[in-house]
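Blinded run. Sample ID left blank on purpose so nobody reads anything into the name before looking at the predicted structure. Input follows.
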Amino acid sequence: MRRLIAGVGGIALAASLSQFPEYAQQYTQRLGGAVDELRVITEDFDRAAQAGGMDRQGALQRYSVSNDTFLAGRGTSMAQTFMRYEQLSATLARIEGAGPLERLQTLPAYLDSDIGQRTLENYRPAMPVTVEGVLYAGAGFILGYLLVSGIVRFCALPFRRRRHGHVYRA
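Blinded prediction complete.
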């Protein structure tokens, strides 16, 4: 019975872990799209600043000293957009250069971000047919089997019968 329950636990964790490569792929696609759009905005702003005889910092400074609260707010918003572009670009480069285990280790970074949350909300499971997906499934099965087997064995300890009448007395 313990093996059956452990096998079910192994299958459940295998199915769960096998989905990580698909989630990572969907996240990377969304992240790449966000980086591409922020790149367009950044390059457009830089071109406009250059046409006005300024660099990005000079243009942002011009916004910030404006007496018009709308313009000052737009300058602050653009500065935040540039910071987000740099952060997301760095994350995308890190993910694209990471191996399967490194991507798994950075999972919390995926889940903490706006893009990671939207990816989870729209996630569609997929059958793992890549080597990476099969390896995650295999690792999940082994871990799940061992974990559930250990839990069942531990929970059954008080109910085990002593074998062969061996009673140890102090």
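Unblinding after everyone has recorded impressions. The mean pLDDT is 83.
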